[in-house]
Amino acid sequence: MSSAPAAALTNQHTRRNVTTIVSIVLLALMTLLVVAPLLILFRTSLAPSGELPFESGTYSPDNYIEAVTNPRLLEIVLNTLQYALGSVTIGVLLAFGIAWLVERTDLPGKALVRTLMYSWMAIPPVVLAFGWILLGNPGNGIINVVVRALFGVEGVAFTIYSMSSMIVITGLAIAPTAFSMIAGLLRNMDPQLESAGAVHGASGLGVFRTVTLPLLVPGLMSVGILLFMAMIQAFDLPLVIGLTAKVQVLSTQIFLLANSDISRPDYSLTATFGTFFLVLAAVLMTVYFRVVRLGERFRVVTGKAFRPSKRPLGAWKLPAAVMVGLYFTIMLLPFLVLLWTSFQPFYAIPSWEALSRFTLQNYASVFKERQITRALFNTIILILFSATIVMVLSVMIAWIAVRTKTRVSRALELVSFAPMAIPPVVLAIAILLIYLRTPLYGTIWLIILAHVTAYIAYGTRTMHAALLQIHKELESAALISGAGWFTMLRRVIFPLLLPHILNGWLWVAGHSARDITFPLFLITATNVVAASELYVLWTTPEIPKSSALAIVLVAGLLMLVVPVQIFTSRLELGRSSKSSA
Predict the structure, then answer these.
(1) How far apart are CA 489 and CA 487, in angstroms?
(2) Does residue 83 sit within a domain?
(3) Could you give the CA distance from residue 581 to residue 561 in angstroms, rounded to a whole number?
(4) Residue 5: pLDDT above 60?
(5) Deepest of 153, 177, 430, 438, by most Cβ within 10 A of its Cβ?
């Protein structure tokens, strides 16, 4: 009888040792991925100008002095803040209006609106930027040509190359992302709070102003700050549109310093600007967490069931539907222009004459030219490995953080979340510096490593929230039955988390495919991917061929996103029906 308890204690001790070893290994891995590049970045910022961090033992603040005394620094910072604030304001207002109509009114076609909003998140921002350039180019942009033809306007009626155009286009582009976050806020708000205000004689506008809006403000602020952080770090639209418009932001300034065409890249000054950028992102992250903690005081979702009320739009139903349709029409225009251009031997505005030049040659080139096919093949490898590695690590890290409360687990959780505060351009420079003279440099595996580092924070946050919903008894039952630690994860945790894992995998895969920051900073002739090849073709310029590649990239992303979303939805629906039965 005494041997059974002894065996149980031995097994428990073995499992604890395995968990401890795995925790230490994961912490060492995450430290290498996240902390080491940042240390190299800071060391490089103190190196003499033009030297790599290991080429000299000299430490000097000269780069910081040069950066601070740069006469354009203030202008660049103000441009960055103006761009971020303007685009987030437009994006959040648009998203809030559409989310309100979808979640709290009887707007027709709400399922279609949701599908379109989530589908637009699969469209790379650089693709939208290229489409808008074809629409608003001062010389031969379709908008300017049509305005001149219809109204006899001389000169330029609309230019894409300005700060205001960048802000509007970015605001339109981030609205779907803001919608996905704001819709949840509106869906989870108890309508009885608004009903109580109406019972006391308040008008609809009064209820919104005194009840609804105050309850939503903390959530909207957290969404706004999170998007503001993302726009501070934005690189794709400022690169494609801002450089031509001569509107530089911090991200493009770092890119220009690291990719000089006339001299050796100044990595020391680049690292210095990257350090400034990192400090700014850390300040914004601190503000974000304070706002989130403030939002805890405004929780209105409890264990009591409720159904959000749907307000009848009445005579406003048709105008509301038209306004939502107008937004999707505007979003569709750049994509349609790229689609048209992809069938032309050279760029031409739509006409009967241009239609006669219809050709599939650009698509043939996409699937025949060696460099483009290599980019597509590398993109597939990038998507599969980045998303899979991120989600496997995320499940393990989140489980250790949720189930074990040790110093190692807390340190692991902190390090894995740190990339949220690191701008992608800064992380790209840091990774470039640390791996510049290693066999990884110039390979697709370096971009995979960069994406794993950048996206691990999202994966761990997603899995952390999902694991909190799974009771520890299920894992204990598996362990008592003799299952090992890895077997328990594979046979119990992974199946229960499968919908969340698929959603997280899809998010990482989509962002890996559409990301242009890491591929451009780490680009060589052998590790080119679809996003970087798209930019290279556009700047060559081979506009019809780049348009065809853009269409292929978007079609591939939609073919990946839609089936996985459908499968995940059916999986969750099946589980909910079983649990209710």
Answers:
(1) 5
(2) no
(3) 30
(4) no
(5) 430
CA angle 245, 179, 96 (to 5 degrees): 90
CA dihedral (472, 400, 502, 332) in degrees, to 10, reads: 120
- One-letter amino acid at 473 equals E
Q: Which amino acid is at 314?
A: G
Per-residue pLDDT tens over the stretch 110-158: 888 887 887 777 788 888 889 999 988 887 888 888 888 777 777 677 7
pLDDT more than 70, % of the chain? 78
Helix, strand or coil for residue 311?
Answer: strand
394 touches 494 (CB < 8 A) = no
The one-letter code for the residue type at 322 is: V
Alpha-carbon distance of 209 to 216, in angstroms, equals 11
Summarised one tens digit per residue, pLDDT across range 36-92 is 888 888 888 888 776 666 666 677 788 888 888 888 888 998 999 999 999 999 999
Neighbouring C-beta atoms of residue 80, cutoff 10 Å: 24
- Its pTM stands at 0.81
In angstroms, rounded to a whole number, what is the distance separating the alpha carbons of residues 415 and 27?
8
Handedness of CA 75, 77, 82, 87 (dihedral sign): positive
Q: How far apart are CA 150 and CA 55, in angstroms?
A: 63
Could you list the beta-strand ranges (E) of 488-561. Answer: none
- Considering the domain boundaries, does residue 160 fall inside one? no
CB atoms within 10 A of CB 569: 12
Q: How far is 249 from 139, CA to CA, in rounded Å?
A: 25
Computed over its alpha carbons, how large is the radius of gyration of the chain?
26
Sign of the Cα pseudo-torsion (451, 458, 269, 83, in order)? positive
Range of the domain at 403: 359-581
How many structural domains comprise the chain?
A: 1
Is 425 within the bounds of a domain?
yes
H/E stretch holding 205:
helix 204-207
Cα-Cα-Cα-Cα torsion 214, 218, 220, 222, nearest 10 degrees, comes to 170
- Full DSSP string of 238-277: IIIIITTTT---HHHHHHHHHS-SSS---HHHHHHHHHHH
pLDDT over threshold 90, residue 382: yes
Angle at 273 between CA 268 and CA 274, to 5 degrees: 90
* 32 within a domain of the structure (yes/no): no
Check: CB of residue 212 under 8 Å from CB of residue 189. yes
Chain position carrying tokens 């539907």: 321
**Two tokens, residue 298:** 């405004």
Angle between helical axes of 3-30 and 407-417 (0-180°, round to 10): 30
Reduced to 3 states, what is the DSSP secondary structure of residue 32? helix
| 106 Cβ neighbours under 8 A, 6+ residues apart | 310, 311, 312, 313, 317
The token pair that represents 361 in the structure block? 């040659």
Task: Name the packing angle between helices 494-514 and 370-403 (round to 10°).
Answer: 140
